């Protein structure tokens, strides 16, 4: 989507809800306000994982991803509640509805964050006033706190929103990055995770300044083309526009196959979905994408086409997660009619560097165990060739 060129520099806001799940729980139940509160995937299990926690809990050293047992030892009075996805989704919709009363240029990035382009409605001169108005309305109307970053581009706006929490408003100018960002370890930069930080460190790139000033060839050899994009952002450059249609019209990644014979048995169809899930996951990985909508396609021997979809809270990109969701949809909706074609599509995709996974329900324990194994398998296959190593089912 193209937008007109403004004569004045762009002014982008990044709005990030503070302790979103916990804040929604406190808004729905005022008795929880002021308490050390945590949302936990399994509150009754001491090994359950905290999805998020309030700032009151963080004051005791409690943090997201900690087990219930560990958190209780640090804060015996910690109040635990189970996650409620629908409650959080409704709160998210209400937040974005408020933002759209200011401008149509609102791009939701995840359930609790969005970019807003205010260049045409006040620009830098009115930026703080607009941000304060948004922040105050969300607090007054929804009883939810948020922090807002103000900057000339998406990367700097997102960085700024993290600088003051809760209820912060921060302006980050490009001329300030050498003082405020460059001294930080490279892992502190948005878009760089542990694996990328380790690769950069092995190449002698340890701070954000090191990345910004490194030789381009060295960065490309270390992280590929993505490394060059990250280097530009380390310099404070980011040309991505705020696209209000992005959340609903993202490109999709899919794969389908026509079966050798018309299948009528579930056990014969599931292996097909496994192969399709792997193809989709490989394509997502190649393009560094993840998506929040999964759909399956079923074409019967009589050429009757069906499509069933599901929106998930956490973006999908792992093979086993895609297979699980697709096979569940298939079990729920297949009517037993002989099948000629099967397909899987992951839609509403976002770049992995923008991925902000909201740990929820029961996924963190599984997620935490799988990340290291996923990384190992990926590294081995890249070294010895695709398909060399497979995870056990």
Report on this model:
Its cofactor is Mg(2+). Monomer. GO terms for molecular function: DNA-directed DNA polymerase activity. It is an enzyme of class 2 (transferase). The active site is at 113. This protein has 13 helices and twelve strands. The protein is globular. It has helices spanning 20-28, 55-58, 68-74, 85-99, 123-142, 154-161, 177-180, 194-202, 208-213, 216-234, 266-286, 319-333, 363-384; strands at residues 12-17, 37-40, 50-53, 79-81, 106-110, 113-117, 146-151, 169-171, 253-263, 289-300, 305-316, 339-351. It folds into four domains: 1-172, Alpha-Beta Plaits; 178-234, Orthogonal Bundle (DNA polymerase, domain 1); 253-361, DNA polymerase, Y-family, little finger domain (Dna Ligase, domain 1), CATH 3.30.1490.100; 366-393, no CATH class. Mean pLDDT is 86; it is low at 1-6, 356-368 and 370-376. A hairpin with a 2-residue loop joins strand 5 (106-110) and strand 6 (113-117). The chain starts with 11 loop residues before the first strand and ends in a 9-residue tail after the last helix. Helix content is 40%, strand content 21%. It is of the alpha+beta class and 393 residues long. It has a five-stranded mixed β-sheet with strand order 5-6-1-7-8. A four-stranded antiparallel β-sheet has the order 9-12-10-11. A three-stranded mixed β-sheet has the order 3-2-4.
Q: Any idea how many domains? A: 4
**Helix/strand/pairing category:** alpha+beta
Overall radius of gyration: 23 Å
- The CATH topology of the largest domain is Alpha-Beta Plaits
Overall geometry comes to: globular
Average per-residue pLDDT, rounded, comes to 86
Q: What ranges have pLDDT less than 50 throughout 5 or more consecutive residues?
A: 1-6, 356-368, 370-376
Q: What series of H and E elements makes up the topology?
A: EHEEHHEHEEHEHEHHHHEHEEHEH
Domain UmuC: 12-193
Active site: 113
Keywords: Cytoplasm, DNA damage, DNA repair, DNA replication, DNA-binding, DNA-directed DNA polymerase, Magnesium, Metal-binding, Mutator protein, Nucleotidyltransferase, Transferase
Protein name: DNA polymerase IV
